[in-house]
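Sequence in, structure out.
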Amino acid sequence: MLLTNPSGLCAGKFCSTGTVERKGLGGGEMFQQALKLLLVHEDVGSPKEIYRLLNQTDLGEFEFEWVSSSLMKKNGLSHGVYDVCVIDSASNGISLLTELRRVTSNLPILLLTQDSASQVLDALHHGATDCLVREKLTSPSLEESICAAIETARKAECQAEYERCYLGLVENSAAVIYTHDLLGNYTSINQVGEQVTGYTRDELLSMNVQQIIAPEYIDLVWGLITRMLEDRKPTSYKALMVTKEARRIPVSIANHLIYRDGTPVGIQGVANELTGEILESVSVGSTRSASSD
């Protein structure tokens, strides 16, 4: 059903009729509401052709809007919310893609290109989610690309939400939470770490663990790091943390390795202040491996 402006004008909107159960690539239900697609085109016949292909898919109910590339360049992206954008512009595809990526980093964008590997690589380099060869475009390939792009975007959003929640937990923890590389250089620390040590985050990120742990505990700490690298097990121990004002604070520290591609690249630690406790001596026997609890 045509809702606004017939094909051939600068902008318009189609809406499909009927509702079909829509499945993701894994077979599970993917779209809870009508799919919203935006086409940025150069050829006046492109909206009708893309709409025809969409109607031959199993995407079910969808809203399909289009805008000419000249109007897009003049007015920018509309304030509508879209699930996916398709760019069909032989002469301005990359520049349109660049402009869209400047204003929206999360929108899945599919670019129709010529049958050229260099053009595809250039498009992907500029932020295209996927590329489809214009001369070989079919309903199945369009449907697969749309589903894959949206699924990828939603997974990325879920990951981003998880990271935001994790960051919230870290920042609101009552403990000092930090990471450092295998040389002891701090790579991150939460707000509690700033409050306890008296150093700003920027200062801490230019410091080494040896500048925070009391000198008499340094050999112990490095010995435990070496042990962790050998047996790949977490460790916990007690030590003294030295603040910017030279106060010595007893802390209980739990460390575990951070891995990248199966290889240890750093350490994450959690330090809790031991209120009222005094540490007077240091011995390897006073430490314990977390695996022996």
